[in-house]
Write a structure and sequence with these properties.
Blueprint (H helix, E strand, L loop, with lengths): L2 H9 L17 E2 L5 E5 L4 H6 L6 H12 L8 E4 L13 H18 L3 E5 L1 H8 L5 H4 L3 E4 L3 E6 L2 H7 L1 H18 L5 E2 L12
Parallel strand pairs: 2-3, 2-4, 4-6, 5-7
Antiparallel strand pairs: 1-3, 5-6
Helix pairs in contact: 3-7, 7-8
The structure holds uracil.
Length: about 200
Amino acid sequence: MNLEELKTRAEACTSCRLASTRTNVVFGVGDPNADLMLVGEAPGRNEDLQGEPFVGAAGRLLNRFLGEIGIEREEVYIANVLKCRPPNNRDPLPDEVESCKPFLREQLRLIDPQVVLTLGNFATRLLLKTDAGIGRLRGKAYRWWREKTLIPTYHPAAALRGGDRIVEAMRFDFALVRQALDGAARSEDPEPAQLELFDR
Ligand code: URA
């Protein structure tokens, strides 16, 4: 299956309750051959209305962080753990993550990026298979599935709420992304389970 076919499948998905409240499925956007893939949590109101990830205030901040390391939004691929908006932006529920997971897994396989940047707890915990919090996990590069580099950082919405400390931490993590793309990041030794992509 190619990315377009996967998108068509996602757009018809009714596997969980979010299908009944969404306006649009927010599959993902960007260069299908990107070296860098960003994974957020779930669409918010603007994303649900426009069908594109990170188009609201958090997205503008994200574009700025990317710009600071010399990357245009169009050069990367951006997706979320959930493809449909949870009502009132509540947290994703475990069964929603379970039923949506195959889409993200296939996106990662098809895009096959060299570096993955996870934004916030939901994406980071899912991809690194851990219950640890983002505050402890971020600030490092991890060797991940198929020799890729995974870099966890805060969700940009946390930076909008949390101020300078979070913004500075995210700048540090984006600098790690730059180093990883340039082949210069030193990665932590992962837990063996983290070297495998999450399964069905
Ligand atoms: N927050 C996310 O995690 N993803 C989006 O697409 C928008 C806001």
